[in-house]
Each structure stands twice: as structure tokens, then as C-alpha cells.
Specification:
By secondary structure, the chain is α/β, with parallel strands linked by helices. It contains eleven helices and 13 strands. Bound molecules: nicotinamide-adenine-dinucleotide.
Length: about 325
């Protein structure tokens, strides 16, 4: 199939582009590089430098390539930043996505896979979180994901041959031989803790150690980017899949912050310096996914998402990353 991957210079998008190529698909990456790295785009993919809402870039590539599928990663992805810059988030993640969806649909694209997030659920009323859990946005970022999902639901209702899939990722983590996590600024626990262990940054701050959990720190569900990439490929390839579908993509189990730090120490052989700070508003004590739906409908299950595999891949990639050394700071 011909697949347009927006945000394919980013962490999850570049890994998914590589997986789609490995499975024999033709891939065009569209990315403005506002947050990504040109060097992360796999060599087998065509690269178009541009914004998802720039019709002067978008329309010619849609008209020429006649894509079978759109996999839409491009977005801003920091909850905290979205609280101080809500307009920037609603513009980039919602308004620009609507331009992209509308042009893709009018150019005959009938498979859309969208990067959603477990943040759409807000604070959990029950665990594991299943897809029928009520949605509640606690931030403009979360709201942007809910709005795009809602738009896709309406588009699917109005377009009977459209398959629109929202993948609600839990915490993306890990690395492959070629690609790993290199956000700027970085806000995710594993790369921050590895940085602290390597002496590249100040001690890690643990946001609260007085939660009602086994060791007082928050529990999160970490899913390896190889598993995420496969979930996208299966969503693109699914037959008889018309309509709107939302699937959780997580490992289905949770690890505490302290367990993650202990694993990093074991793998790297270095202690992770840390200090304990106050709780962050809106942080749930525990979050983990129910994944029966994606297993039953798409045959997906996490294969690479043990904490040991995630941490060993992330530590191996971290210091000698080629994309990090080429592009860090751009
Ligand atoms: N990383 C996670 O744990 C996580 C969890 C849930 C959901 N998500 C979602 O997954 C997607 C990818 O996340 P990531 O961690 O790979 O982020 P990332 O920042 O590494 O990648 C996003 C990419 O999109 C590009 N981009 C942003 N706005 C653009 C625009 N208007 N036009 C063109 N390109 C644009 C950036 O340059 C970047 O390359 C995002 O939609 C994010 O909200 C991520």
C-alpha cells in the first residue's frame, strides 16, 4: 500500500515508517521538523518537508501519490506545555489535523490511523482502563486528542468505506537499533532517568512518593515502540474494518517509578540520582491498559514491552544515538 506518514521524523512516527517499509509498503513522510529529526526518517521513505496544513505542499503529494492510507502522528505532545500554550495546541493538533483529514478524504484516502493517547481518559474511575471508560480532558493536549477522535468518528459516519482508527497509546518507550527517544525538551521518565544516570543532567525529580501504591510512586504502563509500530501496521492492513475504532495500545501492566529506576541501575550499572518533589496536579496513582479489544480485532499483542527489554534497548541507544548526535538541539 501507499502510506502517507505525518510526523515521520519523530520518535514513534519514524519507527512506524521503518516497520511499514519492512512490511513492503511504500512510505512518504511529511514532517515540518518543528520537533523531529531529519536523520530519523528511514532511508527507504520519501521525505517531504512541510506542515500538515500547508495546502501548497499537501495537495500536490495527495494528488500525485493516490495514497491508500494516512498515518497521522504529527502533533505537539507535552501536557504541561499545552496548559501554558492552549491556543498553540488546539491550532497544531486540531485545526491543522482537520485540514489534513479533509484533504486526505477528498483525495480518496480511505484508511486513517491517528495517534491518540490514554490521556483521553483523564483520571481513571476503574482499572484496567478499557476503551469504554468515560473520556475527560484534563489538559488542552488531552482535549485535542478527544476532538480529533470525535472528528474521525463523524467522518467515518459520513463516509461508509472509511476505516478510521484511533490508537490510544500508553507510555511509548524503548528504542530500536537505529531510532530512540530524543525529544527537546524531554519530559519522559526513562530518557530523563538515563540522562541523570549518565551524569548528563541534574538529578531526576520524582513527582511524589506518597501515593497509595506499592512503593509510593506512580505506576505507568510502558509500551515498546516496536509494539506500537506493529499496531499501526496492523491498523493500516486490516480488512473489513470500516467505521471508527478506538484501541488501547499498552502492555497491560504497570511499573512504578522506583521499579523503572532500579531497572535502569541494573542495566547501566550506574545509580540514578534523584530527589523527591511534590505531586503534579492531574497525575493518577496508577494507569494501565486493557488491551483485549485490539487483540481480538487486529490480533495485536505486546511482544517487546517487558520492562527489561524496554530499558535495555533505551540504555543501549541512548549514548551513541546517531540522530541524537546529528540533530540534538535543532
Ligand atoms: N510519546 C508518547 O509516549 C505518546 C503517547 C501518546 C500519544 N502520543 C502521540 O504520538 C504522536 C507522536 O509522538 P512522538 O513522541 O513521536 O512525538 P515527536 O515530537 O517525536 O514527533 C512528532 C513529529 O511531528 C512533527 N510535527 C508536529 N507538528 C507538525 C505539523 N503541524 N506539520 C508537520 N509536522 C509536524 C514534528 O516535527 C515531529 O517530527 C503525537 O501525536 C503524540 O501526541 C505520544
Amino acid at each position: 500500500m501507499k502510506v502517507l506518514v505525518t510526523g515521520g521524523a519523530g520518535y514513534i512516527g519514524s519507527t512506524t515508517a521503518a516497520e511499514l517499509l519492512r512490511r513492503g509498503h511504500e512510505v512518504v513522510v511529511l514532517d515540518s521538523l518543528v520537533r523531529g529529526h531529519r536523520a530519523a526518517v528511514p532511508t527507504g521513505a520519501a521525505f517531504v518537508h512541510g506542515d500538515i496544513a500547508d495546502r501548497s505542499v499537501l495537495v500536490p503529494i495527495l494528488a500525485e501519490a493516490r495514497f491508500d492510507a494516512l498515518v497521522h502522528f504529527a502533533a505537539f505532545a507535552y501536557v504541561g506545555e499545552s496548559m501554558s500554550e492552549p491556543a498553540m495546541y488546539l491550532d497544531n493538533n486540531v485545526a491543522r489535523s482537520l485540514v489534513l483529514f479533509r484533504e486526505a478524504l477528498s483525495h480518496g484516502v480511505r484508511r486513517i490511523v491517528f495517534s491518540s493517547s490514554c490521556t483521553v481518559y483523564g483520571l481513571p474511575a476503574r482499572l484496567p482502563l478499557d476503551e469504554s471508560h468515560p473520556k475527560a480532558a484534563l489538559s488542552p493536549y488531552g482535549a485535542s486528542k478527544i476532538m480529533c477522535e470525535q472528528a474521525l468518528r463523524w467522518f467515518a459516519d459520513a463516509t461508509p468505506d472509511l476505516s478510521a482508527v484511533a490508537l490510544r497509546y500508553f507510555n511509548a518507550a524503548g528504542a530500536t537499533e537505529e531510532r530512540g527517544e530524543d525529544h527537546d525538551p524531554e519530559t519522559h521518565l526513562i530518557p530523563l532517568a538515563i540522562d541523570a544516570a549518565m551524569g548528563h543532567s541534574e538529578p531526576l525529580v520524582i513527582f511524589g512518593d506518597d501515593y497509595d501504591t506499592k512503593d509510593g510512586t506512580c505506576l505507568r504502563d510502558y509500551v515498546h515502540i516496536l509494539d506500537l509500530a506493529e499496531a499501526h501496521a496492523l491498523s493500516v492492513e486490516a480488512g473489513d474494518h470500516e467505521g471508527f475504532h478506538a484501541y488501547n495500545v499498552g502492555a497491560g501492566r504497570a511499573y512504578s517509578v522506583r521499579e523503572v529506576l532500579a531497572e535502569i541501575e541494573a542495566v547501566s550499572g550506574r545509580p540514578v540520582p534523584f530527589k523527591v518533589g511534590p505531586r503534579r496536579e492531574g497525575d493518577a496513582p496508577a494507569l494501565f491498559a486493557g488491551t483485549e479489544l485490539i487483540r481480538d480485532r487486529l490480533g495485536w499483542r505486546a511482544k517487546f514491552s517487558s520492562l527489561a527489554r524496554i530499558v535495555s534497548d533505551a540504555v543501549r541507544w541512548h549514548p551513541q544515538s546517531s540522530t541524537a548526535s546529528v540533530d540534538r538541539g535543532e
